[in-house]
Design goal:
Layout lengths: L2 H5 L4 H17 L5 E7 L2 E9 L4 E3 L1 H11 L11 H22 L2 H31 L20 E5 L2 E7 L1 H20 L7 H17 L29 E5 L4 E4 L2 H11 L5 E7 L7 E3 L4 E4 L11 E4 L2 H11 L2 E3 L1 H5 L1
Antiparallel strand pairs: 1-2, 1-5, 2-3, 4-5, 6-7, 6-8, 8-9, 10-11, 10-12
Amino acid sequence: MSMSTQKDQLSISSRILLIISGVMLTISIFVPIWRIELAAPQYPEGLCLLIHSNKLAGNVDIINGLNHYIGMKTLHAEEFIEFTVLPYIIGFFALLSFIVAVLRNKKILYILFALFILFGVIAMIDFWRWEYNYGHNLDPTAAIIVPGMAYQPPLIGYKQLLNFGAYSVPDIGGWLFIVSGIFMFLTVLIERHLIFKSGKNLSMMMFFLILCFFSCNTSGSEPIQLNRDHCDYCKMSIANGHFAAEFKTEKGRAYKFDDISCMSGYLKEQSNQIKVKAYYISDYTAENTLIAAESAYYITSEAIGSPMGGNIAAFHSKEAAKPFIEKYHATEVQWQEILH
């Protein structure tokens, strides 16, 4: 093989990145690409519209009912040509990634990356156009008309629409798509001899990117910002980190409370509308440190004096609670008793 031919071929590192990109793009066809979440007092757990490459999912029927009242068009996948062609376009980029990895041709790599970026730009413009049309072209005979009001969701980020807060963010398929683009960009930089001349450095970067990607999830507690966050039940500012509580729904939304009694009261009122995934409670011995509620040890006494009169303290272990049982002449209480 001549030296000129070798110079025109991709390195092993670039081929690995392209194969990973192809795999991620293939997966993105079968999982949600984007999500629009709607939060409002009448929907405590929120509503979610999931946009796949070939369909709409989530609370589509409920959202269509709301859209009808304010004059927006209802959403039906068959009305969007994008849902017909998008799986094939993504599949094309996945297949082309594999082909480039096999052929090891730099020129085709550059064409792949240019087409991928062009498609990404066109896709975001098309998404913005779709949001604009649905948010602005309203039925003048709708039941609810607010003069001058438009209901266009944000392209990305947060926007207030009447009493609804709208969040628009990539879902797992969207993040896979973004990371695929980053990997393609890295291959271009590698082949232009701008970065990662050492395979070890590339391996470290890939490990870091993959770690960051899988760390972005809805599991675990969400930190409570003292004196900034407000209780979702009594609306008071959460100021005492010894008694704060929190639960996360199956959709990943966190509800925060200044007292365990507030959390219990909120759940009793909204029990039919909220599906809780996990409960968290502040460890009394470590201010503003949340621990899993089911595994905590609880004591109760009037002398504890929690913010809203729940008078229950949680500890990470029975041993940690012993000094306070004596101090407050407290008695043990079980988590299930508190919850109900």
